[in-house]
Structure formats: structure tokens, C-alpha cells
Amino acid sequence: MQYECLLICALLAGNSLAGSDIQRHRRAAVDVDNGHAKEQHTLIDLPDCQDLRKYCTHQKTTDNLAMLECATSFSSSQLEALPDGCQHALWLQQRQLQSDSWVQQVLLPSYCPEEQTNLLSCMNAVDVWSCLEDKRILMPSSSGCQQALRRAHASLVPEHADVVDFYNVCSDVVEQLHCGRMNVEHLPSALSQLSTVQCLQAAATKTPIEGPCKIAINVIEQQRGMLELFHTCAADLSALCPKEHIGTAGAYKCLVKHKNDPKLTKNCASKIAQRDQQMGRDYRVSHGLAKACKEDIKLHHCRRGVSEDKQVRLAQILLCLESVAKNGTKVTLAPECLVEISDHRRMLLTDYQLSPELLSDCADDIPKFCPEEHKAQLVNGFTSTGGEIIHCLMDHVRARRPQRRVTAQCQRGLEMLIKVSDAGEDWRVDPVLRRACKPVVDVACKDVEGGEARVMSCLLEHIGSQMMLPECEQALLLIEYFVARDFKLDPQLYKHCKDDAIKYCRAKRHWDDSQDPQMDPERGPMILPCLHRMAYNEDDQQTLRKDCFKEVKRVMRQRAISVDLMPEVEDACLSDLSLFCADRTEKGAEMECLQNKLEELTPDCKAAVTKFTEEEAGNIELNPVIMAVCGQAMQQHCSDILKSGKDKGEMMDCLVAHKNDADLRQDLHCHAAIEHFQIISLKSYHFTYKFKEACRPYVTRFCAASATKNEVVACLSEVMRNDTIRGKRHQIPKECRQQVKSQLYQQRESIVLDPKLGKACKRELENFCSDKKGPGQALECLMQQTPRLGMDCHHAIFMVKKSELADSETDYTLINTCKEMTYKFCPDTDSVKLLSCLKTYKDDPQFDPRCHLVVVNRMIEQNTDFRFNPTLQSACGKNIDRYCSNIVATAQPNEELNGKVIKCLKAKFRESRLDEQCAKEMIKILQEQALNYKLNPLLQHFCKSEIQELCKMHMDADEHGQVEECLKTAFLQKQLINRECQMEVASLIVEGKADIHVDPVLETACTVDLLRYCSKVNSGSGRKLTCLRMLLRETPNSLDQDCRQKLQQRIEMFNNADSALGPPEDMQQLVQQVVTSPSRKYFLVILISATGMVFFMGIFLGRATKRAMSLKNK
Q1: Which one of 224, 252, 271 terminates a domain?
Q2: Could you say which residues form the signal peptide (predicted)?
């Protein structure tokens, strides 16, 4: 009875699926027509049934009913001995008992003539024999009718209702093929027709059986398999599932659950595996699913036009039923159906044999790639713990080397398996994942509500954390590899983004692919990348809904942890990953590797990595390394951006801006991650989101030939600089100019971010600046060492100076060293003109010494070459072209002129030939040089030894013009021996004649007198000085003593300087200039040589003259 309980229910569930065809046969019935009913066969007289005479002697009568009653009591061996013809005749008689017509027209008139009237009322009952049995019980035991009804009921198939459908749909075929057979093995009622079915199957090779009869045959075959399974597994069930009763659905599920248990016998495991294969081909083999989901399968048309006699794969039914739940309709599945679906999803990932497609598609791959697991399956009938072969195959889908990857059809089969099992929705579905990740879930995700992939999402968020286990990460990434390739497999993403995906990304409307196949990444649109692009679309009319936007960000963040989860990159970069990144397995390491090797990648891979890096630049969440190590920094410094929800490059800019703050300098991991992305971004300007967005049109216009970002920045910077110098309206808009300056600023912070400079100055960095590790220190060191630099490094530093001195906003050292001074003295000054402002206040007593040093150094650098001073270029451009063009024409494009152009302008300044604007600028320069000799490169060069010998005591003191005053005094006292130094100092003195403002010592001494007597005199052309000289000549006592002394000294200097600079007026001045000239030895050699030549020529000519005279005298 235990077997029968399960089998009866299964038969009812299976037969109920036959639908309208069987109902039609029921209504038609298999009632024998009146003529046939009246035709009586005497079974005992049939030639094939002579054994009935032998075995039925105890029967009082020999009518057919008595013979049938006798035959049903035969043993198995007696029944098996009956010829097929007799068995067929007995089967026909047994079938007649099911016929209402036979009961009404033969049985009742023949055996119950008196009781017929009372019994005819049962002919309208739902179950005729149940009604007759109820009435028979009330009859007296001596009644002949009572005996006949008893015998007839006993001759029925036990639980005859179980086989009524088989009789209804297969009677004609059985009669035609003479396949009626008795229940030889006395099987349960659901299998009473098994012998008949076996005869039909044998005959079907010649006469195919179609329609409802074939369905009924299949159902009986299925019941047979279940019976055999329980018979084989009886001992196993008792040992492993003691609480389950044999024959029940719970017992079967329990056996399936333990099918990988080592305690399970080999025969039982083999039966379960066989059953699994049958279930994969036809879902009706799973009686629990067929029964629990019967109405839902019918309601939602899950058979989709497949006729009732055809098998329907388990995968199709599961996909259909899961689609009902996924499509967001109000229709819900029955609770018991949902339970069955969940059970079968687990079963699919436990045993690959449940998936016929996988069996065929991966037939060659399993023994090739998973030999150990396959061997265990063949030898033992099971794997060690379940699901290992499936995971082994999935692992070889991700293999980097082509020869280690499964075939394309096997990959398709695995994709279908993951979809049918919906493994991305519930982490417990996959037994391997469940075992590996349970410890992690218990700790990291214990408060996460189950369902809709919430636990899976939690696990992904913890990849790379201390709580994650390696085996859990491995199993999780295998599942997510497939989930990443179909956005529908992520329940939360599909739920919130389905409508947007359909609207913007050509996604299909149905979760189930059976009618409208969803193309995978190799054959159709990439839904998730499309949604990601739409998430940051500027068009307000085409944006994602808020909940979808949130899910897209989550998914993109989670998938950035591994290239495997980015199909658009992984598919294009398989060979490159194998070649360059085989050993990079850390979180986000493969993408970093590809970015580092960008120039060496294959074209397709390079394009894919470039595209991803562009997206990563605009959305920091796509950078798993920064997200992992810079979370605290983002919270502390960039919380407003986090709260806003949209990045667009803001977060990376924020982190870069704070990279050298005290907390981030101590956080080495975050600092390194930020700098690494800065280095990666150097490969292309597209990798800096805000720069790309602001400057793309102008890069195309002005810098099409530039390859790297630094080349683009240098190109645009040159355009900006030229516009500034020429006073033209900027061709590049403010937003782009700001981004260019930002990139230049970053380059100045670290030479690592300027590879070209780093390469050119590698030797110098090692020799002179190896100890300079702080922000901006290495570059500052190189600039200080300019005279000692090699040619390549010198040229590179020249370009840095040219850019940096043109715009203070790009000067990292100046901005960071002078932050407080900027706030105090120049709060409203445009950062571009910051240096000019700080120059003004550098001598203030409250000025920071460190900032003062930087400002002075910048001033020194500016005075080495007019190209470092945009203000001078703008003010004096025309004068330079007019008077100094020969110097500019012969200048090297990347070497300093060492003040030659400024010297040229000084000469014209002394002659008052400069334009007013240029003259004003030159006054500023001369004033600065007068206060600090280091700002005058020619003076430093020509008077180097004199400064060290005569003015050493003033060299290290605060600069207020003491060194220049010292040299002027030495000039006056004729202590300067070097002619070039004499000339340079004389030039300084004469420049004072042109304008008193360029002589700060004299101007300071005479400030009161200038205000008192010369305030109405215009500046320039020496007018102020002329005013003071007139006062000294006419009313000397009116001047302050200090002013009078300094002025008298200057007048004496002027006379000497004029003498030194002017041509010699007599032989004495000529001799004096030669004697004092540093080239006096050269002149002496020339003089001696000339004298010698004259002497020798005199001797030669004297002899010649003497000889001529002798000849003449002769």
C-alpha cells in the first residue's frame, strides 16, 4: 500500500495532463456496442484458455465472470503460463467490467433480474461500482445477485479508478494489436497494465502509437521506474531517511538530497541518476512538480503548443514558471508550486545529469577538463559532495588560455543551466556555493533578508574583506560570471530596470526566452552597459528611474572587482589576460594590469579597456581598489559628493586634491591607489573625465597629433599661453583652461606624473635629488640644479619653467608653500597672477620665510629668460621685435638666454627708447634686480669672483640691494679688475641715470627730498634725478645729508661709468682699458706679434733695398 499511495497520486497527476483529448475519450467511453455486449465469449471454451479448466475446478459455474474471478487469483507463475491469447481474452473481459453498458445490458439482466430496477439508479452515479458495492452490502448473503456483484467487483483491477484513463484511451489499440495482458507480477494498481504496455511498446516498432494513449503509456512507464527505485533504495531510505515513509514524495526528495552521500549504495545512486535524466527530458517524471504546478502550467501555457503526447523538458517548465514570478505581473504561483520550483533548482545544480542539454553539449568537455570528478561519477555513481562537475566546467569557461576553455556549445549549456536554476537569485541553490559561503553568510550577512539575490549582493560587497573565504569567493565568482552576462539573472536589477531596459536598450519583454530569445553578449545588445550609459545621460528626457539608477550603480560597482564579471572586457581580452596578467588575481588587479599594459594590448582589448577606464574615471565606484582602501578618505574629505549620488569625475578630483593631506600621506594604500590612477590617466586624456568633457573639441582642433594626456596638456597649455601673451581673446574656454591647469598642477606635484620629464632627468634625480621625496620637492630640486643638468633634462626643465612661470595656478610648490601668505596678502588675487602679488609683499616683516624663498627663486628663474615672464613679453613684445630680434632669432627653443634680451632692453631703457608700457615693466625688473643681485643672471655670471671676494659679507644677508651697492662702491674705488664685471656694474650705474626708481638705495635715501622738491616732476628719462642734481648744485644744504652724500657718490659713479662705457677719447684711456681688460694677455700677444712682424719685415726689406742699391751702384 505504501507503493500504491505514491503511484496512485502520480498516475492521477500524470493522466490529468492529458487534457481535453482524454476527456473526449471519457465521454465517448469504450463501451462495447449493444451487439458486442450481447455477444458472449465462453472463456473456458477458447483453445488458448484450456488451463482454466485445469485450475478453476473449484468454481461452481464456468461463465466468464467465474473464470475471470478464478484467473485473478492465480499466482504469478500460473498467470505467466497462460498463453497470450487467453490473457488478451481475460483482459477484454476485465475491461468490460469498466463499461457501464456491459453492466447495464449484460451483468444486471443476467445476474440481478429482480434487483435490476433498484440497481439501475447507480448507472447515473459518478462511480458506478462504488454505488453497486454499497447496494450489494445491503443484500442478503444468500442472494445470487449479491454473489455475482461480489465476484464481479473482486475481478476488477484493484483501485480500478487508477487505470480508467488507460482503458479509455488505449482500448482500441490494445484490441487491434491483441496486447491485453493480466497483471502477472501482481503489481500495484497503477502498474497493473504494465504487461499490456510492454506488449504495446514492442508492437509500436511496426505500428506507431500516438496521442493520449502514448501519454498514458509514458505515465505507467514512469511509475514503473519509481517502483523500481524504491525497491532498490529500500535499505538506503531506512538508513538515511528514517522519518520518511516509502513511496511518498518526501521519501523520494530525501533520497535525492542524499544522492551524493557516501553511505548511499551504488545501485540506489544509479537509479536516482537514471531518474534524474528522465526528469530532465520530461518534467512529468517529477511527480511532485507535475502535481503541485499542474494548474499553473496549464494557466500560463507552459507547454507552448507541445502536444500532450510529447515530452516537455524540465528546463522549459521551470523557465516558464519562473518567468511568471519575474515579469512583475499580479499573478502569483501556488505556494506548493513555488516550493517544488525551489527544490528542482537545487537539484539541477547538484547533478548535471538533470540537464540533457548539458549532458550532450559537454559530453567531450567533462572527461577532458574534469577527469577526477568524472571518474568518481562513473565508479561510484555520484560525486564527492555534489555539483563539483558543474563547477569544474564553469571554472573552465573562465580559463584564460583557449585550450583550457570548454567548447562554445558547452558554455551555452552552462548558461542555460544557470538561468533555469536561477542561481543568481538564491545562494542556497548551488550546493558548492552554499557549503563554501555559509561561514561568511553567518558572519557578514546574518542580518540580510533572504531572497531576490540580497545575500548574493552582500557576499559580493565583502569580496576582498577579511571575512571573505577564498573558496567562497571562487564559487561566488563562478556563478556571477554567468549572471553578469544576462542582466535578467540579477533579480533586483531586473525588477527595477526592466522597463528602462526595454525602453532604452532593446531588451526583450519576457524573462523567459522560449518565445523571444534574449541575445547574449556574443549575439546581441549589452543591456547593462547600455543602462550604465543612460544612468549618466545629460538629457533629462532620457534618464533612468531613481530605483533603477541605484541598482545600476550597485551592479557596476560589484562587477568591477573582476574582469570576469565584465564580459565586454573579458571577451575581448582573453589572450592579453593570459599573456600579461596570469598571476594577477587580487581584487581589481587584472584591470590594473590591463591598464598598465594598455599600449601593448591587442586592438580589440585596448578599445574595451579604454572604454572601461573612461567610465571608471567618471565613476569612482568602478575602481574597486580605491573603493576598498579610500572609503574613510572619501567620507572625511568628499562627503558632499557621496551624498549627491552622482560623480562625473568629482570624486577623483577631490581625492587628488587631498592626496597630500596629512591623513592621506599616512594612509599609504589609499595614497598609492590614487596615484596609480593618476598614472594610468596619463595614457589618454579620455581617462580624466572632467578634462575629457571640457576639452574634447579643442583637443581635436589644436592637438590632433598628440597621443598621451601630457602631450595634449602641453599642447593646449601652449595655445593658452600664446593667447595670453598676445593679448588675444582665449580660443579655449574657461572650463577647459581650468582643467589644463589642474593637470599641470598635478604634474608639478610628482615627477611620476610626468614620465617624459622623469625619463629625461633620471640620472640627475639619482645624483642630485635622490633624497627629495616630498610633494613637489624633486622638481624644485631639479630647477635649483639647472646649471648642472644634462642637455635632455635641461631642455625638459626649461619647458616646465616656461609653463609654470606663465601661470602661478600650476605652480604646486608656490601654491602649497604660500597658502597662508596668499590668504593674508592676496586673498582676492586671481591665482594666475599670484606670483606678481606675492612679489609685492615678499619683503613685508610678517612674510613667511619659506614662501619668501620660493617667491625669490621664481623671480630669479623669470629673469633668466624673457620667455619665462609673460608680463614682460606682453608689455615689451614690440620693443623686443624692434631691438632684440637678432638675439631671439638665434635662441634655442628650450634653453635659457641668461638675461640677454633683458640686457638688450636695458640698453634701450638707458637711451629712453622703450615704449611707455615696456619702460614701466623694465623699471620693475631693474628695481627687483637692484634689491637682489641674484635676479640679474649677467651680474652673477660676470662678477661671480668679485661678489665672493669683495661682497661676501652681504651674500647671505637679507637682500636690500647691499651686494649691488657693494659692487658699485668697488667700481668707484677701481677694485673691479674683470672688464665684463666693470661693464655690467657700469651699466647698472648708468641705468640709475635713466630713472631714479631703478636705484632703490638712492631713492630710499632721497625719499623725503623727492616728495618735498620734486613731487611735481614726471618720472622717466632721468627727470627726477636731474631735479635732485640741480638742488645739489644750487642749494646743497636743502637736501638731507644722507641724500646729499649718496647723490654726490652717484654723480661720481656716473662719470666713471660713462668713461667705462664710452669709447676711449685718447691714448691714455685706451691704454687704461687694455691694462684693465681681462683680455689684456690677448692684446699683449697681438701687440708683440705685430711688433715682431714689423721687425722681421724691416730686416727683410732692408736687405732687399741694400742689394738693389748695390746693383744700381755697379
Answers
A1: 224
A2: 1-18
Query: C-alpha cell of 700?
Result: 581635436
Rounded Cα–Cα distance for residues 801 and 808 (Å): 11
Q: Could you tell me the sign of the dihedral formed by the alpha carbons of 12, 13, 18, 19, in that order?
A: positive
Q: Give the separation between CA 906 and CA 889, rounded to whole angstroms.
A: 19
Return the residue matching grid coordinates 566546467. Answer: 393
Instruction: Identify whether residues 152 and 76 lie together within a single domain.
Output: yes
Provide CB contacts within 8 A for 416, sequence distance 6+.
Answer: 315, 355, 357, 358
Whether residues 151 and 214 fall in one domain: yes
Pick the range with the lowest mean pLDDT from 228-232, 364-368, 819-823: 228-232
Cell of 433: 556555493
Q: Is residue 948 part of a domain?
A: yes
Of 262, 281, 300, which marks where a domain is finished?
Answer: 281
State how far the Cα of 93 lies from the Cα of 797, in Å rounded to an integer.
111
Grid cell for residue 207: 505500428
For residue range 112-127, what is the model confidence (pLDDT) as tens digits? 888 888 888 888 887 7
Helical segments of 973-1113, H only? 979-994, 1000-1005, 1007-1013, 1023-1034, 1041-1061, 1067-1076, 1080-1113
Same domain, yes or no: 805 and 951: no
Same-domain check for residues 234 and 85: no
pLDDT category of residue 666 using cuts at 50, 70 and 90: confident
Half-sphere exposure of 460 (CA within 13 A, CB side): 26
Cα angle 229, 276, 311 (rounded to 5 degrees) comes to: 110
At 190, the amino acid letter reads: A
Quickly list H helices, 363-490: 365-369, 371-380, 388-397, 408-421, 431-444, 454-461, 470-483
Domain holding 55, by residue range, is 43-224
Per-residue model confidence as pLDDT tens digits over 313-327:
777 788 787 777 666
Domain-located, residue 806: yes
The string of pLDDT tens digits covering residues 485-538 is 887 788 888 888 888 888 888 777 776 654 444 444 433 447 777 887 777 766
In this prediction, residue 1102 has a pLDDT band, given cuts at 50, 70 and 90, of: low
What is the tally of structural domains in the chain? Answer: 6
Q: Say which range, 171-185, 202-216, 689-703, 707-721, has the weakest mean pLDDT.
A: 202-216
Is residue 911, in this structure, part of any structural domain at all? no
Most confident of 181-190, 321-330, 807-816: 807-816
Q: What percent of the chain has pLDDT above 70?
A: 87
| DSSP-based three-state secondary structure for 470 | helix
pLDDT of the residue at 12: 36
DSSP, res 977: -
Residues 113 and 262 both lie in one domain: no
- Same domain assignment for residues 243 and 162: no
Contacts (Cβ under 8 Å, ≥6 apart) of 233 = 255, 265, 268, 271, 272
pLDDT exceeds cutoff 50 at 372: yes
Cα 133 to Cα 129, 140, 145, 515: the distances in Å are: 6, 13, 11, 52
pLDDT tens by residue, 145-159: 888 888 887 777 554
> To which residue does cell 560570471 refer?
481
Q: Name the band, by pLDDT with cuts 50, 70 and 90, for residue 162.
A: low
Cα separation, 177 vs 180, in Å, equals 8
Rg, the chain, Cα only:
52
Residues 187 and 86 in one domain: yes
Please indicate, yes or no, whether residues 176 and 256 belong to a single structural domain of this protein: no
Q: How far apart are CA 974 and CA 982, in angstroms?
A: 9
* pTM of the model as a whole: 0.63
Long-range contacts made by residues 360-369, C-beta under 8 angstroms, separation at least 24?
Answer: 360/413, 361/407, 361/409, 361/410, 361/412, 361/413, 362/393, 362/406, 362/407, 362/409, 362/410, 362/413, 362/414, 364/407, 365/393, 365/396, 365/406, 365/407, 365/410, 366/393, 369/393, 369/396, 369/404, 369/406
